[in-house]
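Thread: quick sanity check before group meeting

JM: Hey all, I'm pulling together slides for Thursday and realized we never actually wrote out the predicted structure for the chain we discussed last week. Dropping the sequence here so it's in one place. If anyone has concerns about the input, flag it before I start.
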Amino acid sequence: MRLQSITFKSFPPFKDVTLTLGVPEKPEQEGEVHILTGANGSGKTRLLSLIAAALGNPTELDRRQKGHKGCSIKATYGSMPGVWPGSPGYYSQWGRDGYGHGLARIPDKTTRTGFRYILGIAWKGSAQVKGADVTALAPIKLKSIEEQLTFDRPEGEDGLICQSMTNLKMSAAMEMMSQPNVSGRAMTMTRNLEAAVSKVTGRAFSFSVTAHPKVSLQVSWGGVAMQFQQLPDGLRSIIGFLVACVAKVDAFAPEHPKPLDEPLFLLLDEPEGHLHPSWQRKILPAAQALFPKAMIFAATHSPFIISSVNKGWIYIFRSDDKGLVTVENPRPCSKGDSYLDVVEDILGVTEWYDPETEELLADFRRMRDSVLGGHWDQEPALRNKSHEIGSRSPALEDMMAREMRKVERAKAQLQKTAA
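JM (edit): ok, ran it. Output follows.
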């Protein structure tokens, strides 16, 4: 079931509102992305916590809403043929009387109950995977699916990731031996995952399982075999996200022939953590490709994350002078957005230099406007200020030269008019 809208009342810091999610206009093979952005304290993570509550775990929301017992929240789901089956109007609710409906679910006549739950995964960009002991094809079991909807890493996460990848690699090897020309379940999952990490990092990435002296999981990155503790923080963060999601999907649907094609909710809080900008701009497209039927919600301050999505929606959080927050109507992502466009138009940052330089430029503009307003006796001081600023860098030197030429042209025009 696709999340269609969220209604909240008495939910600080937001004004009472219904937030209607943009309808996806995307290729069928890409996940649906909704980007949440705004100033610190504007409620982005709180909204992610609200979605987590609507999906089955109100723990994060309870923690953030302590002392606000009168709030009321409702999440409405609907269907999308071929992607999100279900009946429009199903909803989850949280408020004074506690949590309403259970976890998000979709119809499934093959089950005893007539439906099955949808997996939701919450992840914080600061999370990093560590190595863990593994054994050959040991059974794994996902803990409660509610537990996956907290931004604190669940206990045993590293063991789940490492054991799941060990199982998938060994299963893929057995599939190759039995049917060399057929890409089976495990082979498809590992190939897609390793290709995604390779694309993000720009180096060939793969897992390998060694049998002697004991079974262990290693990583090959750029042709170099490494243990987990030897990996850079950014790569450990990517593994903690993409690989963890694959491991959880695998454990959640062990009998499904194509578990990566299952409906999935991903809640990402600052996915740019530990990532160089060149990796930031690839992480969401990688997730879109790896999980084509996922609804991905990402709270971020990164212009590289925001501008990386061609098909999706951007929600800008704005605070008024009383601190109350409204969420603007969703803006469609654009194929042509540059990082600079996002910085100015989406993030609202208009300063391009360090704070000290910006103060000098503000002084210069005030002096320039005064001179052009008729106080020509201040022109020498303006020139001194332009020299001071221009000495800071070649780019500023060029800028000051252009500005002073404008002043000279204005002065010449004034003298011509007076003559």
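AS: nice. Residues 123 and 151 are 5 Å apart (CA to CA). The first strand starts at residue 2 and ends at 9.
JM: adding both to the slides.
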